[in-house]
Amino acid sequence: MALILPTAATPVDGQHLLPSACALSAGKAENIDRTQAEALATVQALMAARLTLMTQVAQTKWNTGAPIEDPAREQQLLDDIRLRAAQANLSPDWVVHFFRLQVEAGKEIQYMLFAQWDSEERGKFDHPVDLRADIRPRLDQMTPKLIGALSVAWPAIVSGKVHLKSCSPRALISGAGCVTPLSLVPLMDGSARADQRRTVTPIP
Ligand SMILES: C=C(O[C@@H]1C=C(C(=O)O)C=C[C@H]1O)C(=O)O
């Protein structure tokens, strides 16, 4: 499987680089280990499941008037991830980078939904689930699973031979089993390879 890198990048908010084309393809010449390929599929499924939950997250905040961003919760999440990554023998810096972009991608979806509901002058949702009691525990259950899958897929991620489908945030919330360009950034920006170079001591 070969990664086709984006042909151009668009600065967004002066911070993130959004790949303008995220087509990824499989090539027989560059076969990757089957176990790693399956782990990559699990990574994609969990990324998509995490992002899909953001619609429910946004609905609870719309109803309660809570802000989209919760920096204390993010910090707690990333601190936990740092510990778990070390336990999984992964680079804590890279895994935190990966999750930071998952969080940003999730907020991108929530901001988009709020903008849509604002323009529709939408009222409250009828059957909101509880953010703390229902949704965050589900998000938390995904964290160790994602780290486990990233750990198995790590050699493929470092090699750049990844195969993940991307779509727009709007397509994602309408039920597509894909991930958004922003969430893919850590798998495509060369950070895994750079981290590997930094953390692996060459044999003399
Ligand atoms: C998902 C939420 O919204 C935002 C995104 C978070 C995440 O992706 O884990 C955490 C906190 C919020 O800044 C949430 O509030 O739980």
UniProtKB/TrEMBL annotation:
It is an enzyme of class 5 (isomerase). GO terms for biological process: chorismate metabolic process; salicylic acid biosynthetic process. SUPFAM superfamilies: Chorismate mutase II. The keyword Isomerase applies. NCBIfam families: CM_mono2 (TIGR01806). It comes from Granulicella mallensis (strain ATCC BAA-1857 / DSM 23137 / MP5ACTX8). This is chorismate mutase. Keywords: Isomerase, Signal. Gene3D superfamilies: Chorismate mutase. Its EC number is 5.4.99.5. GO terms for molecular function: chorismate mutase activity. Pathway: Metabolic intermediate biosynthesis; prephenate biosynthesis; prephenate from chorismate: step 1/1. Residues 19-114 form the Chorismate mutase domain.
